[in-house]
Write a structure and sequence with these properties.
Elements: H1 2-20, H2 43-57, E1 71-74, E2 80-84, E3 90-92, E4 95-97, H3 103-114, E5 118-121, H4 136-148, E6 152-159, E7 167-170, H5 182-193, E8 199-201, H6 212-217, E9 223-229, H7 243-260, H8 266-274
Parallel strand pairs: 2-5, 2-6, 6-9, 7-8
Antiparallel strand pairs: 1-5, 3-4, 7-9
Length: about 290
């Protein structure tokens, strides 16, 4: 009995690992030993995410100027649609709730690097997109889904750094995946490969009516709510340099990029993998 359990665990573990990357032989024909794929997210990408978040931070609590929308739809050619409806402060039941800081920076990099279409708050939200269905944001989201029919929708959120998990997957008790559990299995494998270890499912289940996850899944498209521990998200530059958090931002971004890769234009990733990292100098450290 024990032997059967061990064999089963090994098979599942191997399958999950392969689900995130192509299998690789340890030895290449010319004698070189290659065990791992080369990283392709650079420190410049991390800095770009932090720079975007710094600019967005100035508008966290700022209403949109007269005549301008409070959210943006950024086009993309990938089949994974990204939502960041809590990227700024949002109004719910008579009060403004604080933003999920860092979600905008991560989401916009998935748009810029992987080509994931994105709907994101650009200014303070007068109506919480993850609480009310009758909003301009939800109408725009509905139009995007009906037009593009994505393979999957990812709704990005942030949790307090005091939460015990690295990330929590909100799936309405597994129902929001619409029977396509392989999406979550691959996502876990890709994030685990980049260093995440503490996973949770449905701490925030996204089950209440009004959530993006419920709204999207009821349209017949699989959706998962990602509650990243904020220690993995980009925060505006200017404060004390947190070396660990900066690395974690790169890891989170690379894990998400590996996950969406099968749904993206392969040429985008060819360009990323061909690029060489810039040299590190004493001036550029830490």
């Amino acid at each position: 009995m024990n032997r059967c359990v061990v064999v089963f665990v090994v098979i599942v573990t191997c399958w999950l690992g392969i689900g995130c990357r192509a299998s690789r032989s340890a030895e290449v024909s010319d004698g070189r030993i290659v065990l791992f794929d080369r990283a392709f997210i650079t420190r410049e990408h991390v800095a770009e995410a932090m720079e975007f978040e710094a600019k967005l931070a100035k508008r966290y609590t700022q209403p949109a100027p007269q005549g301008q929308p409070w959210f943006e739809v950024l086009p993309g050619d990938a089949k994974v649609l990204v939502v960041a409806g809590h990227a700024t402060s949002h109004h719910r039941e008579g009060v403004f709730k604080s933003q999920d800081g860092g979600t905008g920076g991560l989401a916009v990099m998935l748009n810029r690097l992987a080509g994931c279409p994105l709907i994101i708050n650009a200014y303070q939200s007068p109506r919480d997109p993850n609480y009310y269905d009758d909003s301009e944001f939800k109408r725009a989201l509905k139009e995007l889904i009906e037009r593009d029919r994505p393979a999957l929708v990812i709704d990005i959120h942030a949790s307090s750094s005091g939460r015990p998990y690295d990330i929590d997957f909100g799936t309405i008790g597994g129902k929001s995946l619409l029977g396509q559990g392989e999406h979550l299995e691959r996502l876990v494998a890709c994030l685990r490969r980049e260093g995440m270890r503490n996973f949770s499912q449905d701490y925030f289940a996204a089950s209440r009516r009004g959530t993006v996850t419920r709204f999207v899944s009821e349209m017949g498209v699989p959706c998962v709510q990602l509650e990243f521990n904020s220690s993995w998200l980009p925060h505006p530059e200017g404060g004390p340099v947190d070396l660990v958090q900066r690395q974690r931002v790169g890891q989170a971004l690379q894990g998400m990029m590996r996950f969406v890769e099968p749904h993206c234009d392969a040429k985008r990733f060819e360009v990323l993998r061909r690029a060489r990292p810039t040299p590190t100098t004493a001036i550029s450290l830490p």
